[in-house]
Specification:
Order of helices and strands: HHH
Helix content: over 70%
Keywords: Membrane, Transmembrane, Transmembrane helix
Number of strands: 0
Number of helices: 3
Length: 123
């Protein structure tokens, strides 16, 4: 009978040890899975933020390029138009040098165009 009791005690101890080991293994596996999921989520969030930031930078750069190109085109058109208008007036009116200088400052359209032309040259 004593032998049976000692065998039962050993079996109970083994059962407790097995249960403790299984519980510890399950806890470790759950912790590892949670850590892996958190790391994956953090990496995905960082990648999304970096890609979004890059897209914003590229978008802003594209807008700046388009705006600058438009400004340059507008100033170029006004500069050429102003210069051609003044040249046309000088040729068709067959002005003397004194009158030519007067055209640049006396005719409102010509002086406005010449101002735009000079402003475009300064850019």
């Amino acid at each position: 009978m004593l032998r049976v009791r000692s065998l039962l005690f050993v079996a109970a101890v083994v059962n407790v040890v097995v249960v403790v080991v299984v519980v510890v293994v399950v806890i470790v596996v759950v912790v590892v899975v949670v850590v892996v999921v958190v790391v994956v989520v953090v990496v995905v969030v960082v990648v999304v933020v970096v890609v979004a930031a890059a897209a914003v930078v590229v978008g802003v750069a594209a807008v700046v390029v388009v705006v600058v190109a438009f400004d340059v085109a507008v100033f170029a058109v006004f500069a050429v138009a102003g210069h051609l208008l003044i040249d046309w007036l000088v040729v068709h009116l067959q002005c003397s040098p004194t009158v030519r200088r007067g055209i640049y400052f006396s005719i409102p359209g010509a002086s406005a165009c010449s101002c735009v032309f000079l402003f475009a040259l300064c850019l």
